[in-house]
Amino acid sequence: MQELTPEQAVARLEFAYDHACFTLREALARYVKTGVAPTAAERRHFRYPRLDITWRPTGALPYTSRAWAKLQVPGVYSTTVTQPAFFRPYLLEQLEPLVAEFGASLSVSVSDLEIPYPYVTEGGDEFSHGTVQVAELARIFPTPRLSTVGDEVADGLWIFDPDKPRPLALFDAVRTDFSLKRLQHYTGSHWRNIQPWILLTNYQRYVDGFVRHGLEELQRPGSPYAALYLPGGAVVTRETPVEEADAIVARAPWQSFQMPAYSLTRLDGEGGTTIVNIGVGPSNAKNITDHLAVLRPNCWLMIGHCGGLRQSQVIGDYVLAHGYLRRDKILDELLPPEVPVPALAEVQLALQEAAARVTGDRGEALKRRLRTGTVVTYDDRNWELRWSQERRRINLSRAIAVDMESGTLAAQGYRLRVPYGTLLCVSDKPLHGEIKLPGAATAFYQRAVGEHLAIGLQTIDLLRGQLHSLHSRKLRAFDEPVFR
User: Fold this and answer.
1) Where does the record place the Nucleoside phosphorylase domain (predicted)?
2) Which of 193, 290, 339, 412 is the most exposed place for a label (fewest CB within 10 A)?
């Protein structure tokens, strides 16, 4: 059998996937129109394509310092694939070294896993109008089943079976499709528009600043940015007149979505930036990152507000998290609190350098404004009412700031192998009588948000040229799947 090149393998994945989706959509349309259900033979076409890699080394094993796209154990590795045309750059990035350096063989086939019918339609309900209801379609066509969706590979719960292939990727096709639909539901943005560099915030003012930045970049001659995608599907491009752009932004129905996302795309292929207002709390933080992770982003950064816990801090100071006291509880079963979530040196250095460039401060002047330390993340916004119970734990941890999202986002990055970082801005000092009051808060927001957002954007610019070191072995386990 002829060996497939990575390009050929991805082309076959695209053909097989497109054929399966077309056949499924045609069967749906026929049933709605005529009532004729698909036969068992037809349903065999409603399946995801499968990608297999076989590695049988003979001789010395190749060495690479790369943390991903490398093979360590001979055998067969497999995964199902969805949306291969969209994931083409990612797939080729993984496959090319495996063939060129390791001599792995690639094959593409049809899997046993059926594509749920809502995943081949844009809205998911195009065929459930009139007399045909969702419950009726679910009896006749494949539907999403929770028994097929899981994070066993990411959580290290998969069980090796010598008669079965090893996992090739963290997420298979059905898990990916599940999250792609959820992303649209929560963010109001099509998943195709979400960019590989992600800012996560807990205040709409950061989003407003990001939108202003995006509109300015689109008007700036020589800017690498191409378009700003808004919740609800609207888009502003470089050709959009200024007055029209402002009107498009004003009409965007961001209030209709739980965690609205705005995406600024680039022309140079280096990946644009998306900002998501995740709201308040660890549940939202876990929810959105569970779904963002299937896109295999390059990094996500938390830029939001926190309470300062030290007398020497001043409102408006920055906190660069190098550790987390995880009191959010939401990941305790998946990633026990005793498992350390390390700071990533590449991200830490980029955040600090970005802060220096944006503020103009260096050395001792920067240290007075930016403090590195532990952040405690709670699931209870009113933790202050339990101060007598919490004070000793906070004291033992040497925490310098408190919030409700950062520890969760870092733990999710660690768990799902997405580089992460946290830079917070002190908005109040709950232990020292400087609590959030409406007047003081407004003045703080107006002063601090623009600078803080600029630091986040500058950090991403610094990290763009460090992908090899950013996707390092720090996030990889000893029995990792092959793909990043």
Assistant:
1) 269-450
2) 339
